[in-house]
Amino acid sequence: MPAYTAKVKGILNNLLPVLLLVFLSSAVVSAPPPNNQTIIHTTRLSLVGESSYSPDFSHFRYANPNAPKGGTLKLASIGTFDTFNPYNGKGRIADGLFALYNNLMIRSYDEPYSLYPLIASSIEYSRDYAWVAFNLNPKARFHDGMPITADDVVYTLSLLKEKGSPFIQGNYKTIEKTVAETPHRVVFHLAEERGIKTLAFLGYLPVLPRHFWEKHDFSTTLTTIPIGSGPVRIKSFKQGQSIVYERVKDYWAQELPVNKGLHNFDEVQISYFRDSHASLEAFRAGLYDFRYEYDPKNWHHGYHFPAVKKGQVICESLPFHFPPGMSAFVFNTRKPLFQNRQVRQAIAGMLNFPWINQMLLYSGYKRTQSFFTNTGLVATGLPTDAEKQLLRPFKNYLPSDVFTDPLTYQATPTYSLREQQQTAIRLLKEAGWELRKGKMTHLKTGKPMTFTIIIELPRAERVVMPFKKNLASIGITMQVQIIDQSHYRKRVKSFDFDMADWHFWHSEFLGAEQKNNWHSQAASTPQSNNIIGIDNPAIDRLTELLSTASEYGASVVPAQALDRVLRQGYYVIPKWYSPTTNIAYWNHLVRPTTGTPWFPIVNAWWHRDSEENKPATTFLTQ
């Protein structure tokens, strides 16, 4: 993926005029709330702690408000694309599409999770989260000049609830009613399963133009250039090969504090390459400007070309403190072989991370031991009393060691192959398997244990092969199948695999998205993220509690209990994560001296050749 990873994104408003601030704080409430109901009026929404920016902030700390505008940013991506609709879960979306649309609110990148106004200039909500109102900025416009109204917001939510991806539908299904009270005020009425994160999902709602989508089928892939409202629009494209974004020169929100110092390129060109090797060679040849390097072998051996030695290409390793999520080899428990926890545990134990890290990853990685690493949600030791209170009603659905075996969290776990072989053979024998003539054989059927792991990147085969060898040492045959990237996601999301290489992302504040990952309802929903096929009442309940947590503090115990149950269920084989982000870029790019603790915000950079000129461009990260 290019310089704007998945699952994050942010930008805000510039010094809002006093007139606008007055509008925010004095918006009319057409239906008076019940007596004694506390109403919150604000321009900020924070999920974890307090917002770090005051109402009158001028720009984000990681943006340079004096950054020059102009030039072209060239980026790269792997694979192909066939749709300009990033919201329905269909097809392969073009990179950068989320920059086309503004959201009601937008997050900053240098604090855990705070939202600030963009299309919405202020927010009001009841203390019990029964309803929330967004007051829209009357200046907000789509790229064709049409105003963004509350009617567009109502239409967008209805469209996403009906035809959005399962993940999006899950986020918004607690919205009972949406009312456009005025052209610039929309009110959402929420079901009982609600919390502050529901407000955040609504704040992060993109607003789509009704006048465009009423003429196009939202349920399928889109190859027509859509009308947006964000800082860039699509200028041109070659289907599946390249896409060019251009700055919207009359962008309605360019003077808002959230946009100051951001979107500093006149054009952003994204070229697609068949694999990472071709992409690296193109970077070395100067065909694009910025690159994340995820392959440790490339990082140690692929950046010694002349441009690096001359200082024309800059290579940096930046600290990475963002929650890395769970990168893992995932069991598909819909398969009979993997429905037995002891089988999963035995197989998981044969992955020798210390050897892989030292021999193949240049000792640059840490073992992922929790689903929620780098957060306060990691389960350790024995369950706390508060965890036990949540788990005891489901005692019959949980392994007994959830309550009796403490979880450890080792920075540098040790590994003995001989001990793991012995443990695996014992576990498999308890599960009805036996090592016969070098083959792990089922005692009743006489069939050998064999399964297939699918991977999408050829370089991943290097780390899979030692795992395959270790499994073979106890008579298990693991076949390795490399799937073309354009088809890999389809295979996984249709649950057509035995074992797959996958990544589960999350934020600091867990919510309804966890139901899409682990809830039993999602297990039977095509395109959901419950690719494992988990069907467990305890996990269902924990994800439901997370989806209704009214504040961050209320999510901590359910999250820790969920982490414990998932880890001791051996549903995945955790892989590893890097404590640094490796980047390389040509020196005609300039980045701000103040960054974020998570990853580079490339749309805060600018072109060196523009430092004496004046234009403006936009590129939003996702």
UniProtKB/TrEMBL annotation:
Alphabetical keyword list: Signal
Xref: InterPro entries: Peptide/Ni-bd, SBP_5, SBP_5_dom
Pfam family, one: SBP_bac_5
Gene3D superfamilies named in the record: Dipeptide-binding Protein, Domain 3, Periplasmic binding protein-like II
Biological process (GO), any one: peptide transport
This protein's GO CC annotations: ATP-binding cassette (ABC) transporter complex; outer membrane-bounded periplasmic space
SUPFAM superfamilies tied to this protein: Periplasmic binding protein-like II
MF GO annotations: peptide transmembrane transporter activity
Domain Solute-binding protein family, residue spans: 115-505
PANTHER family, sorted: ABC TRANSPORTER PERIPLASMIC BINDING PROTEIN (PTHR30290:SF64), PERIPLASMIC BINDING COMPONENT OF ABC TRANSPORTER (PTHR30290)
Name of this chain's protein: Oligopeptide-binding protein AppA
Gene name, Swiss-Prot/TrEMBL: appA_1
